[in-house]
Amino acid sequence: MNQAIMNVAGMIFDLDGTLIDSMPAWQNIGSDFLKKHGINPPDDLNETIKTMSFAESARYFIDYYGVAMTEAQVGDEINGMIRENYAKHILLKPFVKETLDQYLSQGIKMGILTATHKTLTELALRRFGLLDHFEFILTSGMTGLPKSQPEIYHQAVAQLELPAQQIAIFEDALYCIRAARESGCHIVGVFDESSKDDWEAIKNSSDYAITSFKELLR
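Structure (tokenized):
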């Protein structure tokens, strides 16, 4: 393990694909939403919207497909479609609970930075007994920024009130890792099946890369 990462005072975690195994639940949500509204989605829809924030994807559905709803209404409907998965079905990735318990006991300050709606994030973390482990939850919806923008990482770093050099950011998506690098923090790439095609690039773009949180346990 890279000793610099083990000795940080703060950590910022992505949620989906990093801490929880939720990416399969999201991969067809845009297509399912459009089908509900009588629209036949293209095969590459997920690739088109995967880097968008909730608000950006809602606006895309409205502007490009003519969905007769407001951004808020689109967001509420998609949240409703995905909510049961977060409440009942989505699981933590292996060894996440043990790793976060370890860091909490060491006094490391931790936060969540996610594109997922805050209510869904809280729902999942509360179910796993992890909500109180985190100093903050910051979302794309709260900032108006997608995670492809470095500014959202600067805002997350500011929440921890620590120098960037004392913080590690954990991400599973290549476009997020590239944006996070601009923060000056240590970057930990986390393997997820949904981004396996980018794994070599993720490893090359990260200071450290893990295939399991078991690698972080002492």
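The chain has twelve helices and six strands. The mean pLDDT is 93.
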